[in-house]
From TrEMBL:
Membership in a protein family: Belongs to the universal stress protein A family.
The protein's name: UspA domain-containing protein
The organism of origin for this protein: Nitrospira defluvii
Domain UspA stretches: 2-142, 149-285
Pfam families named in the record: Usp
InterPro entries: Rossmann-like_a/b/a_fold, Universal_stress_UspA, UspA
Domain of life: Bacteria
PANTHER family reported in the protein's UniProt record: ADENINE NUCLEOTIDE ALPHA HYDROLASES-LIKE SUPERFAMILY PROTEIN, USPA DOMAIN-CONTAINING PROTEIN
Cross-referenced SUPFAM superfamilies: Adenine nucleotide alpha hydrolases-like
Amino acid sequence: MRTVVAVDWSEQSFNAVKVVCRLFTHESLTLIHAVDLRPFENPLFAQPLGRKSAGVMREAMVAAGERLLDQTSALVPVTIPSIQRVYKIGNPAPVVLDAIRSARAHLVAVGSQGRGRLAELVLGSVSHRVVLHAPCAALLVRGDPGSLRRVLLTVEGYEDSLRLRSWLRTHRFSQPIELSLLTVVPAIPIGDSTMEFPYDKWTAEMDQYARQLVDETAAALRTMYPVVTAQVEHGDPAHCITEAAGHADLVIVGSHGWRGLEHFLLGSVSHAVLHKVTCPILLIR
């Protein structure tokens, strides 16, 4: 696996390095740190302090970035054949996305401090912009759960199932895991209580479809992972997944490819889960 890890001085970023190194076997690993010096170009900052002071601050940030790469490199096992350190000056999110494309990465890992959805839209978040726009799978890490044995895999449909199974077949976990498969049947929205439609029939058909989906997916996954359980829940998918994630060390979700503002306006299960689940989340495209 070719992996890129975006690093900064946050605890979550250090956790991302440790978690991704434990989860998978890596062919190559790139640590990238980007420093945004645009604030120093603001006249309100540069003119009162003078060019010399701004230059000193810039040099200090560059030196700190090199120290950061030293410290995060020390967390990477020496068994990884190729370890690259990349330090660049620029807008962090585009820099990281360029590094992902250059490395032809299968996975990008980032730390997240857990901004809410409104804050993400208004203030921006490097980690969430990378996760949403990366052309590969993305691992979002807040805390380090220590053990990475209990994995919750959420499936929304057959297309989702095939994508997840294909990725997990190609990129195996480096240690034994217990895989819990979850599909959630959402409630049928009733706009008008006076409307007549076969609610019970539709609900039964949805439940049958969901049960068949999890059974077939679980059977396929057992050829790769011996311990696989499957369950069907009913209710709001994001809520059910968040509740189940409380017993997991890692949550895996699929993405249907929404981008930017569409996430906030239209919503998606995977995007909602990114903001509510506290354990590491692997988003597979």
